[in-house]
Model the fold of this input.
Amino acid sequence: MSEVLNITSLSVEFNINGEYYHAVNDVSFHINAGETLGLVGESGCGKSVTSLALVRLLAKSAKISGKALYNGRNLLDLSLEEMHQIRGKQIGMIFQEPMTSLNPVYKIGSQISETLRLHNKISNDEAKRQSLEMLRKVGIARPEEIMEEYPHQLSGGMRQRVMIAIAMINNPQLLIADEPTTALDVTIQAQILDLMRNLSRDFKTSLLLITHDLGVVAEMCDRVAVMYAGQIVEQGLVDDIFFNTNHPYTQGLLNAIPKIDVQNKDRLQPIVGNVPSLTRMPKGCRFATRCPHAMDRCKMESPPLMEIRENHQSRCWLNDAKVV
Amino acid sequence: MAEVNMQEPETPTKLEVQLAYEGMKESNKFLRLLKAYPLVFVGGIMVLALVIIAVFAAKLAPFNPDTQFPNGLALDGAPLPPGPIFRMGTDDLGRDVMSRVIWGSQVSLEVGLMASLISLFIGTPLGIISGYYGKFVDTVIMRITDVFLAFPFILFVVALVAVLKPSVSNVFIAIGVLGWPLTARIVRGQVLAVKEFEYVQAAKALGAGSFRILFRIILPNIMAPVIVLTTLNIGNNMLLESVLSFLGIGVQPPTPSWGSMLAEGQAVFQYAPWLLYYPGFALLLAVLGFNLLGDGLRELFNPRRVR
Done:
C-alpha cells in the first residue's frame, strides 16, 4: 500500500511571553491510501494543532519543524501558491462546528460550486450540476431546494453533510476531519460517521480522523495514534490499541469509558490529575505525574517511542523493563 | 462511485414545505416588515422624495433659481413674503426662494452622497486590511486614523477646501477624504469579530487565497453595519456641506445651496424670516430622512430583531 501522508518528527512551537514552547513534539505517523487513521487524545493535547500545521493553517508566529510528505512532496516546503492548490483540491477538511463553518451570506449551492470552480475550469452550469450530484451523495433529501437555501435554514446534521459535500467535491485524496461529530447529537453522529465511512470507501479517500471519542475510533479507524501533551504515546492497529493496550494513558482512557455491562455500581475510573501546562512540562515522561505505574526513571528520563510488536509502538519505560 | 443514500430525519415533508412557503408571500412579507420597522419606511419615503426633487428640480421648480425678478421685491426693496406667485417668498435679490430650495436639494444630495461614497471606498479596504492582517499594518493604519480623528474636523475641512478652491466637487472630496477614518475603524472592528468565525478557516482550508478571503468571504459579512454607517453619514455630510456653505467656503454663489441661503438670509431675517425657515426646514427633513433610514436599517440588520 502506498503512503498518502507521511509525517516525520513534526514539532510545533508557540511563542508564549517571548519563549517558545512545544505544543506538538516530535510527532510521526503515516496514512496509507484508503486508510483511516484516528488521532485520539484529550482537549489541548495537540491533535488539532498537528492537523492545522500540516496544511499550514496555523498563525505565522508558530514555529513548525519536521517533515510532512504528501505523496512525496513536503507540505512544509511548498509556496503559499502551491499550498492553495493543494488545500481543498487534494486535502479536504471538515471542522467541528457545523453551525459556524458555513458562510452565512451565501446560498448552499453557491458555496459548493465556488469550491469546485476555485480548483477546476468549468462552467457555472456544470458546477451546479456536480454540486447537486454531491448533495445527493451526502444524503440530502430535496437537494434542488437546499441548493437555494442559506445555512441558517438547515439543521446541524444537514450543515455537516453540506460541509462534507464541500470537502469532498474535488475528490481529495486525503480528508482531515477535526472532531466532525462532536457538536452533533448521537443519532446524527452515527449517520454522519456512516456517511464518511461510505464516502471514503467509494472515493478511495484516506481519512485523518481527529477525535476524543474512543467509540468513534473503534467504529471508524484502521489504525490509531494516541496523543498526550503534544506527543504520540501509543500507536497501532485499532485492535491492538483496544485489546492489547500498552500505555498506561491509553489504559486510563479506556477505563474512563462507561460500560454497559457493569454489575455492581462501580464508579468510573478517571485519570487523576491534569495535563501539565505547556509552559511547565515535566522533565521525564509527560504522563509520569498521573501514571499509576510511575517509577523513578520515569521522572528523570523521557521514554522514546518503542516498537513493542509489529505495527505497535508505545512510549513507556515499562516496556524497557520487560525487555531487560 | 456508488450512491450513498440515507434518510434525513429532519427533512420536512412536502406538505410542510408548501405551507411554509405560502406564509412567505411577497405582499404579506411587505406588510409585516412595514409593521415591524416603520422607521425604515418613513425614512425611506423622505429620502426618496428628496431624490425625486433633486433629480427633477428643473421640472419642479416654478422659476429659474438665479433670475432676479423685478416684481420679486417690494417697493422699498424688501423681499416679498410667501404669496400666490412666489409661494415661499423671495430673497433680498428678488429670487424665488421655492425654486432655490428645490435646486438646493441637488447640491445637498450630491455632496452628501459623494462624500459618503468616498469615505466608504477609502475606509472599507483600509479597515479590512487593518483588521485582517493585524500587527504592524494594523498599528500603522490605526495611528493614521487617530491623527485624522484628532484634528478638529470642521477646521480641517475648511483648510482643505481653502487650498482646493471652493466648488461642489472640492467640498465633497474634502469631506469624503477626511471622513474615512470612522468607516475604517468600524470596518476593522467588524473584521476582528468576523475573521475568527470557522467559515473563514474553512475557506482557507478549501484553498481560498488572501484576496478571496478578504473580499468574498469577510466583506459580505460585515456589510450590514457599513451600510447603516454610510446612510447616517450621508445625513451628516449634508449638514457639513451646509456649514461650509454657510461659512462661505462651500458652494459659491449664485449656485443655490441650503447653507448659503441660510447665510444670505441671516442678514435680513428680522423682517424676512422665511429666508431662514424654508431652507432650514428642507435641511432638517433631508437629514432626518437619512437618519431615520439609517436607524431603521440598523434595526433591520440586527440579528436579534423580533421578526
